[in-house]
């Protein structure tokens, strides 16, 4: 067997700096705060820290709108603070991966400021500029060059008065899309990436990187959007040159460097067929991708803000398909949570410790690289937002205002936002039961979840049955058992509505994972050979395995081993 890359047995921890730890009392997390909490990560045992954006930014999308890629935003600290964090992470034997947001910049980035200044500006072509659609006059309703709806509501085009042309922004109007067709844009991005690698970082998480190649004709999409807008997805997702651009990036940025790097491409809408191409090591693109299939299974016909209950069979079918598709060639990332998704314990669980640990067991025993999002290792839940004033996220706020303008009932819109809004993931990490959960001495930029009085890291360190210690054990299992990292995967009981079960196998070692992802007791038949197996991990004493059956208490999860 060829030696597997280091990241096949690694676990990544995502830090969302704004909400992690505040050292200054301004209510916003910062780099010094992160450095002060590295003990927590080391105790958990993670290998890699992925840092969400800390670059200079007007913060229209919490740093995913960058105005200088080579400067640290003062709200997070200084470049010296960053260097100290990086050194501390390395000293503790961990690696640091940066967020790379290069599908778009901020509209306040000097590149865009130049680009918008005139049609003859040398940087004009660094972004997507188009005149009004014939026969309309610029500014008239319907004059936008295409009918596409933005991810953050409204058209993807904004008219710029200086030249009377529109610029493209798939996200907020403060996030204009870079034109990757222009080789100068690509060279500037490569140079910036090399600058960070020279500084010592260990790789990149690449934001919406499958959107960088657009079909240059920019055609209208089917009019399935709000208010007659269209869906432009087929025109900008996984476009004609995306593989070429990623191969070029790998060559220009990583060739000749020695070190253990990690690259992961965030790719909304990516299919497993595409993912296998993106992650085939022979092609030299990215190590793994974040796919979105499994986090879209509870979206209704109206999209993410029209949620429906998850059918566990759909989840098993989806994740099982990805396990098989990337079994021989390519590699999976594994995640329930990030800063864009509601908290998994509230979404697919019932908020309890048992559901948090059962879901964690299922995810971490798959084949792939697991990602833990800050607070997930504590079982942090969605937040009880009372009203729209409690929300901060541009996506949620835009959606609320547009939906209400379009005549929807504000309470109904809020109910959907409470279930699916991104702010659920962005409330401060709950360190202690004290003032503002030990996150800040001041007033936090978004309210701390009131359940911090009992749900917090300090309380969990001393409790061997806590969610924290369960995550710690799962991470240890991956480090110590090659079968967890690189064993084969076989789904079992695919049609069972409530039990998630599968087998992992490497040579003579076999693991059986059985989890009851429901609030009622379940009984399942096991193959007789499992009667002699040893339990290597369980989240409850309340399970019972005899020769042929397992009786599973609500949310019970267990891992059995046969050698
Ligand atoms: O997200 C990309 C993305 O398409 C979605 O997950 C997005 O968050 C939205 O919820 C779609 O409904 C990435 C970042 O992770 C996100 O935080 C940024 O807002 C976005 O790109 C733009 O940079």
Structural account:
The protein is α/β, with parallel strands linked by helices and 563 residues long. It folds into 3 domains: 387 residues, Glycosidases (TIM Barrel, Alpha-Beta Barrel); 73 residues, Oligo-1,6-glucosidase, Domain 2 (Oligo-1,6-glucosidase, domain 2); 76 residues, Golgi alpha-mannosidase II (Immunoglobulin-like, Sandwich), CATH 2.60.40. Strands 11-10-9-5-2-1-15-14 form an 8-stranded parallel β-sheet, covered by helices on one side. Helix 11 packs parallel to helix 15. It binds 1-O-alpha-D-glucopyranosyl-D-fructose (TEU). The site of 1-O-alpha-D-glucopyranosyl-D-fructose has 14 residues, from loops.
List the helices and strands and how they pair.
Layout: E1 12-15, H1 31-36, H2 38-44, E2 48-51, E3 55-56, E4 68-72, H3 79-91, E5 95-100, H4 110-116, E6 129-130, E7 157-160, E8 165-168, H5 183-199, E9 203-206, H6 233-236, H7 242-254, E10 262-266, H8 272-279, E11 288-290, E12 299-300, E13 303-307, H9 312-325, E14 333-334, H10 344-347, H11 353-364, E15 369-373, H12 394-405, H13 410-420, H14 457-461, H15 467-480, H16 482-486, E16 488-492, E17 499-506, E18 509-516, E19 522-525, E20 534-538, E21 543-545, E22 549-552, E23 557-562
Parallel strand pairs: 1-2, 1-15, 2-5, 5-9, 9-10, 10-11, 14-15
Antiparallel strand pairs: 3-4, 6-8, 7-8, 12-13, 16-17, 17-18, 18-23, 19-22, 20-23, 21-22
The site of 1-O-alpha-D-glucopyranosyl-D-fructose has 14 residues, from loops.
Overall helicity: 25-40%
Look up the CATH topology of the largest domain.
TIM Barrel
* Small molecules bound: 1-O-alpha-D-glucopyranosyl-D-fructose
User: Which CATH first-tier class of the largest domain would you pick?
Assistant: Alpha Beta
InterPro entries: GH, GH13_cat_dom, Glyco_hydro_b, Malt_amylase-like_C, O16G_dom_2
Organism: Umezawaea endophytica
Domain Glycosyl hydrolase family 13 catalytic: 14-426
Keywords: Glycosidase, Hydrolase
């Amino acid at each position: 067997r060829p030696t597997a890359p280091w990241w096949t047995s690694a676990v990544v921890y995502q830090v969302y700096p704004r909400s992690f730890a505040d050292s200054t009392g301004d209510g916003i997390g910062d780099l010094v705060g992160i450095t002060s909490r590295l003990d927590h990560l080391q105790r958990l045992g993670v290998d890699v820290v992925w840092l969400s954006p800390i670059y200079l930014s007007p913060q229209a999308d919490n740093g995913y709108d960058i105005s200088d890629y080579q400067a640290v935003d003062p709200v997070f600290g200084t470049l010296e603070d960053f260097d100290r964090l990086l050194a501390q992470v390395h000293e503790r034997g961990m690696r640091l991966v940066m967020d790379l947001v290069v599908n778009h910049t901020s509209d306040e980035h000097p590149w865009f400021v130049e680009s918008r200044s005139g049609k003859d500006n040398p940087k004009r072509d660094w972004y997507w500029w188009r005149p009004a659609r014939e026969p309309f006059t610029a500014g008239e309703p319907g004059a936008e060059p295409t009918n596409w709806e933005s991810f953050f509501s409204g058209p993807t085009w904004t008219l710029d008065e200086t030249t009377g042309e529109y610029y493209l922004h798939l996200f907020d109007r403060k996030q204009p899309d870079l034109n990757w067709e222009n080789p100068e844009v690509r060279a500037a991005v490569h140079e910036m990436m090399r600058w960070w690698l020279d500084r010592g970082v260990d790789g990149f998480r690449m934001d919406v990187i499958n959107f960088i190649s657009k079909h240059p004709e920019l055609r209208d999409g089917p009019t399935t959007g709000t208010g007659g807008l269209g869906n432009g997805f087929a025109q900008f997702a996984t476009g004609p040159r995306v593989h070429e651009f990623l191969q070029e990036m790998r060559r220009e940025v990583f060739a000749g460097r020695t070190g253990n790097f990690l690259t992961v491409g965030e790719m909304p809408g990516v299919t497993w067929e595409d993912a296998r191409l993106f992650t085939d090591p022979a092609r030299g693109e990215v190590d793994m991708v974040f796919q979105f299939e499994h986090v879209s299974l509870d979206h209704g016909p109206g999209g993410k803000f029209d949620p429906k209950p998850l059918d566990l069979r759909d989840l098993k079918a989806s994740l099982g398909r990805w396990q098989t598709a990337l079994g021989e060639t390519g590699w999976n990332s594994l995640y329930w949570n990030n800063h864009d998704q509601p908290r998994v314990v509230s979404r697919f669980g019932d908020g309890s410790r048992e559901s948090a640990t059962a879901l964690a067991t299922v995810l971490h025993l798959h084949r792939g690289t697991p990602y833990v999002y800050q607070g997930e290792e504590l079982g942090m839940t969605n937040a009880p937002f009372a009203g729209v004033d409690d929300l901060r996220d541009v996506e949620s706020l835009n959606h609320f205002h547009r939906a209400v303008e379009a005549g929807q009932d504000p309470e109904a819109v809020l109910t959907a936002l409470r279930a699916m809004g991104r702010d659920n993931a962005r409330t401060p990490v709950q360190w202690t039961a004290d003032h503002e959960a030990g996150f800040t001495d001041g007033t936090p930029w978004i309210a701390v979840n009131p359940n911090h009085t009992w749900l917090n890291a300090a309380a969990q360190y001393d409790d061997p049955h806590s969610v924290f210690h369960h995550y710690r054990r799962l991470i240890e299992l991956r480090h110590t058992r090659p079968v967890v990292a690189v064993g084969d995967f076989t789904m079992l009981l695919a049609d069972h509505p409530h039990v998630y079960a599968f087998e992992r196998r490497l040579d003579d070692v076999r693991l059986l994972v059985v989890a009851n992802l429901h609030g009622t007791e379940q009984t399942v038949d096991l193959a007789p050979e499992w009667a002699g197996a040893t339990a290597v991990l369980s989240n409850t004493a309340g399970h019972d395995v005899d020769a042929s059956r397992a009786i599973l208490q609500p949310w019970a999860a267990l891992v059995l081993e046969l050698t």
